[in-house]
Write a structure and sequence with these properties.
By secondary structure, the chain is of the alpha+beta class. The chain has 2 domains: 318 residues, Kinesin motor domain (Kinesin); 299 residues, no CATH class. Helix content is 41%, strand content 16%. Helix 12 packs across helix 14 and helix 17 runs antiparallel to helix 19. It is globular, with a radius of gyration of 27 Å. 47% of the residues are buried. The structure holds adenosine-5'-triphosphate. It holds the Pfam family HHH_3.
């Protein structure tokens, strides 16, 4: 196996968009771990990982499984390759945070990834290879010495949603309190003064391997946990002579394990579920921060509450997704989740929103569509989940809704798979795009992305019906290059119809409005569609003739007017027939779409929203949330709803409730 770097940056790899340019949000980058001895035969491995980088914009991490011919690409804000060392990551990602610390700002460095992906190595390092903490601490101590500052450190563990002090362990867990200024105070977490690196090395970390590694658990400990080290810097601002206090948190998250893939025995399954729940919550918050949302649900887990001060607006943070160089489901799932929360995805989303507001009608339809994540069928694990549910009831914690809406619905597609080409609305099917021509300016960066990616990106990127989202870039490119966009659509007599169809099939509001709002929009589109459909083929269409044809449509004796409707690359709408035929066909598509929307809603709504639906009460809503803790998308088709005891009649009632009257 070879980890090939298809870098297109043509420059030093660290020429990524620097942290200093990012005023808020969390930067999400990747780091591919080098091969270890046990992977010595790596070059013959069936899976290949490659990175394609676009300076100042983003990176695409592609996993190419030669055995299954599966290709998946994930977009991140940046990605560091196997041969790039921790010093380089420090310089590009962490140093700007440290500089903020010197000015009294907070910072956060989070390592996240699958088992064995290199998280500990990155944060803590080993032997001759210091990790990010050591390098950062060296700089902070040097600054403190020069500026009459002082440095203290705390070390904590978040296990099963409880926080423990690792430096001065106590019986009681650490409490999270909020002071009058709304700052988080960690009551019970000790702060130990550190004057030098050797002071730090002498610290004893409780419950950690050999008393030295504060990240590695002793072999006899099976419960996984998140661990973090906070470095506090108190200094005096030379100009104002005021005291400054900044802190930086280095967090090593527990391994992300794709529990669907594992035949875990129940205790481990429950533990993994809890860990994943807190990881989802954190990534959801990253996503919300990057999307610029006003409400950030920090309170949803202890981990995110603890990190609130480090992730809030005044702070700067980077999430480093550690990646195994060999393909494994855990790594794919981890990078998939990270990719959905990254800034580049949300930045494009904002761009899309701007286009929607200021651009042509057709541009409104250029937003990406969202497809669900493949998950185990509900039925497969129903019993297991029920058991977990009863365990929860017995006092192991009350299940609560994880707001994964942003992750599942809100972010723009960042993953592409060649394998899965079916089951996706044809309206967003891609066309081959011209390669090579460079965009004139940054504002066309989306166009640039596609053109630069070349065959790997353009031809291989296909929207999926499974675990991947489609990509805004390619779709915009498609429409711009392929259609000539605005002018063509304006001149096209069916432009309104096409526009509406795009609206219907394309999830244009990435912030995922409530289902009722979406359905209202669709029903409006339907009304419009029926009107416009009858107008097609009528060369001198005006209001009178439209009304006339509407009347004729209802009259069975009216002779059919043959006409062709061709919507580019949309087989569903590419036929010749009567308005009735067209309407019928479209209605079928809409029904499917409505069903999909309904499933999406059930896969993402919170408890109160769920209870707002007919047929879903407290118990069923709780059960749905439990299913969602097990799997990110438990409902893949309408039959899955039967698994939660809903009859066809109830499902229909539920859908008509949200659809309302026409
Ligand atoms: N940058 C690196 N250079 C050399 N070896 C590395 C690097 N990163 C990781 N490794 C090696 O990869 C292996 C796994 O790394 P590490 O233990 O840091 O992963 P992890 O994600 O913390 O694992 P886990 O949390 O599952 O214990 C180790 O043998 C480590 O030495």
């Amino acid at each position: 196996m070879g980890s090939s770097s298809g870098a297109r940056d043509g420059t030093d790899s660290l020429a990524s968009e620097p942290q200093s340019q990012l005023q808020r949000g969390v930067r999400v980058v990747g780091k591919i771990r080098p091969f270890v001895d046990s992977e010595a035969g790596g070059s013959s491995c069936r899976a290949r990982v490659s990175v394609t980088r676009f300076v100042g914009d983003h990176a695409l991490v592609a996993f190419d499984d030669q055995q299954t011919c599966r290709k998946d690409s994930y977009k991140l804000d940046w990605c560091y390759e196997q041969d790039e060392n921790i010093d380089q990551i420090f310089t590009a990602e962490v140093k700007p945070l440290i500089e903020g610390l010197f000015r009294g700002h907070n910072g956060c460095v989070i390592a996240y990834g699958a088992p064995g992906s290199g998280k500990s190595q990155l944060i803590q390092g080993s032997g001759q290879n210091p990790g990010l903490v050591m390098i950062a601490l060296g700089e902070i101590l040097a600054f403190a010495n020069e500026n009459r500052g002082s440095v203290t450190v705390s070390c904590y563990e978040v296990s099963q949603d409880h926080i423990y002090d690792l430096l001065e362990p106590k019986d009681q867990e650490v409490l999270i309190l909020e002071d009058a200024a709304k700052r988080i105070q960690l009551k019970g977490l000790s702060q130990i003064p550190v004057n030098s690196i050797s002071d730090f090395k002498k610290l004893s970390f409780h419950g950690c391997n050999m008393g030295k590694s504060w990240l590695k658990l002793p072999d006899d400990r099976t419960v996984r946990s998140h661990r973090g080290l906070i470095v506090y810097l108190s200094s005096v601002d030379k100009e104002s002579n005021s005291s400054l206090i900044g802190k930086i948190n280095f967090v090593c998250l527990a391994d992300y394990e794709d529990i669907k893939q594992k035949g875990n025995p129940r205790p481990q399954l429950a533990e993994s579920t809890k860990i994943n729940k807190s990881l989802y919550t954190l990534l959801n918050i990253v996503c919300a921060l990057n999307a610029g949302e006003n409400f950030i649900p920090f309170r949803e887990s202890k981990l995110t509450r603890l990190l609130q001060d480090f992730l809030c607006k005044a702070s700067r943070a980077v999430l480093i997704t550690c990646l195994n160089p060999t393909i494994c489901q855990d790594t794919l799932s981890a990078v998939n989740l990270a990719s959905r929360s990254c800034q580049v995805a949300n930045r494009h989303r904002c761009h899309s929103a701007k286009v929607t507001k200021s651009g042509s009608k057709f541009n409104q339809s250029c937003s990406p569509s969202i497809v669900g994540i493949p998950v185990r069928a509900v039925s497969q694990k129903k019993n297991e989940i029920s058991q977990c549910a009863s365990a929860e009831k017995k006092g192991y914690g009350t299940p609560y809704a994880i707001r994964r809406r942003s992750l599942q619905l809100g972010s723009l597609g960042t993953c592409f798979s060649e394998k899965q080409k079916t089951g996706f609305p044809s309206a967003i099917r891609k066309k081959k795009m011209p390669i090579g021509s460079s965009p004139p300016n940054k504002s066309e960066s989306r166009k640039e992305s596609c053109e630069s990616v070349g065959p790997n990106c353009v031809e291989n990127i296909m929207p999926t019906g499974g675990d991947c989202y489609t990509n805004e870039d390619t779709f915009v490119q498609d429409t711009v290059v392929g259609l000539g966009c605005d002018e063509k659509m304006t001149a096209d007599p069916i432009d309104g119809t096409k526009d509406e169809i795009h609206k219907i099939f394309v999830n244009e509001d990435q912030s995922s409005p409530p289902l009722s709002a979406r359905l209202r929009e669709i029903s409006n589109s339907l009304k419009l569609l029926s009107t416009q459909t009858t107008a097609i083929g009528s060369p001198n269409t005006d209001m009178t003739s439209t009304k006339q044809i509407n009347k004729e449509k209802l009259d069975p004796k009216t002779p059919e007017v043959p006409f062709a409707v061709r919507l580019e690359n949309e087989p569903n709408f590419d036929y010749i027939g009567s308005p009735q035929d067209i309407f019928k066909t479209r209605s079928t598509g809409l029904k499917k779409y409505l069903a999909q929307e309904c499933l999406t809603f059930l896969n993402s709504a919170n408890k109160e929203e769920l209870k707002g639906l007919k047929g879903i009460g407290e118990k069923r809503a709780t059960y749905i949330l439990q299913l969602r803790e097990e799997s990110s998308e438990p409902f893949k088709n309408m039959d899955d709803l039967k698994e939660i005891g809903l009859s066809r009649k109830q499902i229909n009632a539920m859908m008509s409730q949200v659809l309302g009257d026409f």
